[in-house]
Amino acid sequence: MSFISMFENLYDQIESVNRLRSTLEEQIRKSTALLQTLQASGQMIEGLVRSHFREMQAQYGEKFGKALTDLNRRLIDVEESHRRLTNNPQEISRMKDFKGFGPLSAQPGNVPQTFLNSPVDSHHNQQNMICQE
C-alpha cells in the first residue's frame, strides 16, 4: 500500500499544482484587464483636467487681458493729460483755478478732483478718512 499511496499523493499534488496554476493565470488576466481599465481611465481623467485647465486659462487670460487693456488706456489718458498740461501754459493756469491743482495739491491728503473717480484713489481716500478720525 505504501507504494500506491505514494502515487496517490503525487497525483493529488499534481492536481493541486494545476488548480493553483489555473487560478494564478486567471488572476493575472483579471489584473491585466484591471490595469488596462485604470490606465484608460487615467488618460480620460487627464484629458478632462487638461480641457478644464484650458478653459480656466482662457477665462482668466481674457480677464487679465481686459485689465491690462484698461490699465493701458488709463495710462495713455494720464500721459495725454500730462502732455496737454505741460505743452499748454494757458491750460496750466486755467487748471490752477480748480480745486486740487496748484500749491495746495502738493500737501498730503489733497487729491486732485480729476483723480477722485480712480479705484486706487478711492481706497486711498478711505484710508485717509479713517486716519483723520
Automatic annotation (TrEMBL):
Region Disordered, residue ranges: 102-133
Coiled coil: 7-41
Source taxon at top rank: Eukaryota
Keyword Coiled coil attributed: yes
Keyword terms, alphabetized: Coiled coil
Keyword Coiled coil included in the entry's annotation: yes
Biased composition range(s): Polar residues: 107-133
Name of this protein: Uncharacterized protein
Lineage of the organism: Eukaryota, Fungi, Fungi incertae sedis, Chytridiomycota, Chytridiomycota incertae sedis
